[in-house]
Amino acid sequence: MSSTRPVSSLPSSAATAGPARFTPGVHGGLIVGIVLVALVILAAVVSLVWTPHDPYATNAAIRLAGPSSSHLLGTDPLGRDVLSQTMVGARITLYVGLVSVGIGLVVGVPAGIWAAMRGGWVSTVFMTGSDILLAFPGLLLAIVLGAAFGASTTTAMVALGIASIPAFARVARSGALRVLSQDYVLAARVANRSGWAIARDHVLPNIAGMVIVQASVSYALAVLAEAGLSFMGLGTAPPTPSWGRMLATGQQFLGSHDYLAVVPGVAIAVAVLGLNLLGDGLRDVMDPRLKQVGDE
Amino acid sequence: MTTYFLRALGKLLGTLLIASVLIFLILRVMPGDAATVALGINATPDALEAWREAHGTNSPLIAQYVTWMGGILHLDFGTSFVTGRALTPLILDRVQVTLIIVGLGMVLALLAAIPLGTLAAVKHRSPLGVGIAGASQIGVALPSFLVGVLLVGLFAVRLGWLPSGGWMPPAYDFSEFLRRVTLPVLALATVQTAVMTRYIRSAVLEVMREDFLRTARAGGSTWNRALVRHGLRNAAVPIVTVVGVQLASMLIGAVVIERVFVVPGIGSMLVDAVGQRDLQAVQGIVMVLVTIVVVLNIAVDLLYMVLDPRIRLRESS
Question: Do residue A143 and residue B143 have CB atoms under 8 angstroms apart?
Answer without folding.
Answer: no
